Amino acid sequence: MSANFDFISKYYPTLGHETATLVAVSCFTANNKPELLSGLINKIIECQCVDMSATEPNSTEYLKKTQLLTLIEKARETIFKNVFTVGLPLDTIDSSNTQSEPQTYFMENSPRYNKGHDHFVRTYGRVSTKLLNRIDSFHPDLVYSILECVYSDILSNDAILSDSESEIITVAAICILDTPEQLFSHVRGAKRLGVADTAIDAILELSREIKNIS
């Protein structure tokens, strides 16, 4: 298994160092490559050559230290969020829903539900209701779990990763899983959140390159 991560650097001009790194972290997580994931993080730390004892806020070393710690924190948040966002392809919902028509989901007015619903709609726009109907048809508790736990508690939390960054890492992870319909939905979501077409193309290209690493 190769531990050469130099290929990632060719995506820096389009994505920037931080975003390209987070895409790679997301892909290695979804592709179940823990050795490469650990190797990438260690390589990042080694290449930065940062003095971690720096304490002077205005110094160059302190700035480099802060940037490195921020990137590591975002990488950890990427792994955490992927736990909740790559588990149920839309194709699975459709294939197990052959005996009944989708029913309109029940709108619950709890604060967590509403917060999650708002974030879901902000991401998926006019197809939100259609997606929620499909999810609801699979299991009566799934809509509430996704909206309250995933979209309210996890994805809408932008303290570390912004909304667009969260969608970028989701696109990367789902590209690895080879679920085209789900990928299409999240690419549209990324565009709705302001991710440029050129960035999306680079994210998908980098993700597919990582997918082919054996």
Question: How would you summarize this macromolecular structure in one to three sentences?
Answer:
The protein has 214 residues and is mostly helical.
Distance between the termini: 6 Å
By secondary-structure content and strand pairing, the structural class works out as mainly alpha
Radius of gyration, whole Å: 19 Å
Count of DSSP-assigned helices = 10
Overall, the morphology is: globular
Low-confidence stretches: 95-100
Residues in helices, as a percent range: 55-70%
Protein name: Carboxymuconolactone decarboxylase-like domain-containing protein
InterPro entries: AhpD-like, PTS1_Protein
Short descriptors:
214 residues; mainly alpha; 69% helix; AhpD-like; single chain; globular
Describe the fold and architecture:
- With 214 residues, this protein is mainly alpha-helical.
- The protein has one domain (6-91, 105-212): AhpD-like (Up-down Bundle).
- The protein is 69% helix and 0% strand.
- The longest helix has 26 residues, at 60-85.
Please write out the topology.
Blueprint: H1 12-30, H2 34-48, H3 60-85, H4 90-95, H5 111-124, H6 128-138, H7 142-155, H8 163-177, H9 180-192, H10 197-211
Helix pairs in contact: 1-2, 1-3, 1-8, 1-10, 2-3, 3-8, 5-7, 8-9, 8-10
